[in-house]
Amino acid sequence: MLKHFLPDEHVQSIFDITPEMLLKRNVKGIITDLDNTLVEWDRPEATPELINWFRSFKEKGILITIVSNNTQQRVSSFSDPVQIPFIYSARKPMSRAFKRAIRDMNLKRDEIVVIGDQLLTDVLGGNRLKLHTIMVVPVASTDGLWTRVNRKIERMLLSWMKRKGMLNWEE
Ligand SMILES: [Mg+2]
């Protein structure tokens, strides 16, 4: 059960994830969280660096879908200008939105990675479907209320797993 909360990989930021890395593992699609994964939760638009990051994957034929628990307004106003398909109000860690993203990209589960900053939504949701999960350090140090609550639980889980020797990456 607790292994569901363990990401397969842990990186400092999305910019540590490159198309070359993913292609080597035959990954053809990315399901990524938005808030505090791609940009700060209160930043309305993609940064130039992020736009280049998106482009680098598109150029290699790797698909990206943004799957966010946030509202239609937030997710569409971020995603539309950069022309990335998205699912809002995703209710992660529930499976439905993940399944829809997989279907829309027309890929197999082992051709997809899930990227996100939260164990209780992104990592748990991806792991439940046996997708490869990559956790990133949150972009912002501030959060909305529910995210703060989630992070508290997350920290407890992480320290427990650390004591059990289940973690091999540094925080
Ligand atoms: Mg997030």
TrEMBL record:
This protein's GO CC annotations: cytoplasm
Protein name per UniProt: YqeG family HAD IIIA-type phosphatase
GO MF assignments: phosphatidylglycerophosphatase activity
Domain of life: Bacteria
